[in-house]
Amino acid sequence: MSSMTASRSRFDTAAILAGLVIVCVGLSLATMAFAGDRYVFNTPNLGIPFGFLAILGVRYSLGFAHNRAGDIALGVVCAVSGWFLIRAAHQFAGDAAFGFWALVCALWFSFWLFVDRLAAWRLSDPSAARVVNLLIPLLFGATLLLLWELIVTGAGVPKVLLPAPSEIWVRLVGSVPTLWADFQQTFVKAVLIGYAVGCGSAFITAILVDRSPFLRRGLLPIGNFVSALPIIGVAPIMVMWFGFDWPSKAAVVIIMTFFPMLVNTVSGLAASDAMQRDLMRTYASSYWQTLFKLRLPMAMPFIFNALKINSTLALIGAIVAEFFGTPIVGMGFRISTEVGRMNVDMVWAEIAVAALAGSLFYGLVAMIERAVTFWHPSMRR
Amino acid sequence: MTRTVVEAKKLSLTFQTNDGPVHALSNIDLTINQGDFVSFIGPSGCGKTTLLRVIADLEQPTDGSITVNDVSPHEARLNRSYGYVFQAAALYPWRTIAKNVALPLEIMGLSREEQEARISRNLELVNLGGFEKKYPWQLSGGMQQRASIARALAVEPDLLLMDEPFGALDEIVRDHLNEQLLQLWAKTNKTVVFVTHSIPEAVFLSTKIVVLCPRPGRIYDVIESNLPRDRSLDVRETPEFLKIAHRVREGLKAGHSYED
Q1: What is the pLDDT of residues B210-233, one digit of tens each?
Q2: How far is CA B82 from its chain centroid?
Q3: CA distances (Å), origin A351, targets A82, A146, A231, A336, A347
Q4: Minimal Cα–Cα distance from B257 to chain A, Å?
């Protein structure tokens, strides 16, 4: 019932998408699907998704089964069609012609339609609503991966330029021990240690800077200067100073994370207004009491901004620093050597691991932020 | 013989600004006794808030002398001998109402039981019982200001300094809070110094009204109110009330030169 409200916008998105699906399916019937006189009807792997998508498009443009069961059936049809299209693409890799691309477009519109329908679901159960909210971006990502697979395989893009997601996945699953060792070397040692030391020391420095005008005048410009140093120039020097192993990478991460944390904490400590400070004065509050009860809580939104910025900066810093000399392990080392050996799928596997680790790290910091600064207007619910 | 709480003699305060010195206060002589409800009234820029801040040791006078509870304002502040209510509630958004009231008590280092007792007692006093676990942003402006009064009262000072505490509230809420404040004052026999720019508010609340005028900030008139200490909002219709209000208005008019 509530899902009926989906199409009450100015444009009936669902009807438009269903129409586009029908058009694309019709086009695929009229043109050659793969080079070598292969049409939809003499290719079983294309016939099945063609039939499914055609029924789906007609059903939605007729306005039939606009309910949750119908939406779930739509999702299943999309998944099955996608599976057969991938099989067809692999069967005739690199031979795709207009008919195949028309079916890919039909599939894309169907997925769009599915996500659009799903986004309009109004669920009363909050945990179910949360699952659906999580499902939508995941489905979106899955659709992108599916299109990537179909286009790269269908068009026969050389592996060196862009490997298909399936190839990256095979490589990733096949080299778990290597990837795990690289992850430990780069993320667990260089990134986490560098991040903790960089942010921690910047935090303490910020409190000292805040306390003493001399340090404020002296240290802040130096911090600014250091942060302006190009990491490409600093990294080899750090390698010379601290050796090939992870400490030199951690040093680069410290340099990268120090300044954002310092500047944000210093401005956060100044964020309390005059009335709040006067209030503490009327209580004859000591410096430390004012710091812990007023100024640090007030600075938390600023501090977490820096922690979030630094969570991604740290990973970039550690990976780039490994380009300038490492033991034979580490994500940056692997990327630079495998590119040289044209093993682009391994590079992509490392990128996938880095992206996943970076996102999780960021997400964790953001979650802590939500718990600590729940009171801030941007977080209130 | 009543005890003198605040005594100022030839008090002056000059701010040095880029446009030259600003005489915020000039030659202030003032005595406030135990149990008084004193209002400072005057146009903006007359130094009424500055005078209150001098009593609270938030500003330092440049000339003259002032004592609070027979000691310097600085010592009085360190003794936590006054509670200060600001123009805005200035509650900390990360603390619940109860925790906000607990803030000065934590700083004073009171025991947990004593804190609990004072929190519930003072929240009851301002009619905020049951709102302990709410956060400030979940309360209306009037309730927030009442919570900030409870926070000032929790220090249990004999002297309450209030800087236009109801200035940002609408008239209905303001009337209501004025009545509550008066009851509170009658119940506790505290000394209250109250800054306002509303004539009815000043006359309704005060036993003594100090009219200030600007450039330089100085006392123009001191009016001792002969209204009964125990008064309700109806007192505002009586001839005595109107007489005092008239005198305040005349004072404000005469002290304020409109030429500049």
Answers
A1: 888 887 888 888 888 877 777 877
A2: 10
A3: 25, 18, 20, 12, 6
A4: 31
Q: Is the separation of the CB atoms in B51 and B3 below 8 Å?
A: no
Break chain A into its structural domains and give their ranges: 2-157, 172-372
Cβ–Cβ < 8 Å for B87, B164:
yes
The helix (H) or strand (E) run that includes residue A148 is helix A126-155
Q: Do residue B58 and residue A281 have CB atoms under 8 angstroms apart?
A: yes
Is B4-81+158-255 assigned to CATH 3.40.50.300? yes
B80 contacts A283? CB cut-off 8 A: yes
Pick the CATH number of A172-372 from 1.10.3720.10, 3.40.190.10, 4.10.220.20, 3.40.605.10: 1.10.3720.10
For an interface test with B, the pick among A276, A282, A374 (most B C-beta atoms closer than 10 Å) comes out as A282
C-beta neighbour count of A278 within 10 angstroms: 16
Amino acid identity, position A257:
T
Query: Rounded to two decimals, what is the model's pTM?
Result: 0.80
* ipTM above threshold 0.95: no
The reply to whether residue A275 touches residue B86, judged by beta carbons under 8 angstroms, is: yes
Residue for token pair 């309704």? B204
What is the least distance, in Å, from the CA of B85 to any CA of chain A?
Answer: 9
- Please check whether residue B75 touches A, CB under 8 A: no
Over the stretch B107-160, which tens digit does the pLDDT of each residue have? 888 889 988 998 998 888 788 888 889 999 998 888 898 899 889 888 888 888
Q: Where are the domains of chain B?
A: 4-81+158-255, 93-156
